[in-house]
Amino acid sequence: MQVSQNVLQKRYADSVHNNHTVDMDHGSRNKYMSSLSIEHYLPQDVFVKSEYLQKIESLGDSIQGGFRDAESFVSMANILHGENILNNQDLIAANYLAKTSKDINFESFNKVLKNENLSMEMKGLISQLMNKLYNINYVHAGLMMASA
Fold first, then answer.
1. Is the whole-model pTM more than 0.85?
2. Could you please report the per-residue DSSP string of 60-125?
């Protein structure tokens, strides 16, 4: 008991209690935030773009008109593959869509996905490719659909 009283007296003498701020939201003393460093304590929100997003943003006009026809679609897919945005499986799906879709657009791709004769593996590859293409098109505000 004597040890704890000595510790309390020392803390009081050193003004440890006087350096704490009162948490106005919770009505208690905050043991971890000194009144001397409030501005350094406040959290900062920072948005850091992923390497993947930076690659997509750097594409610029190279994807414009990528949905014009099958040839431009495959060409765009090869550009995306060269930038390591699409992988080899995505290229397989892109080539398949270029050969089997009536039109090169998301609506036609969705129709291909609904084909019951399509293997589950190919459906997965097409879905993965479409998700990536949706994201790329979104970041570039529909540039893939625009005519070159």
1. no
2. GGGGTTTTSSHHHHHHHHHHHHHTTSS-HHHHHHHHHHHHH-SSSSHHHHHHHHT-TTS-HHHHHH
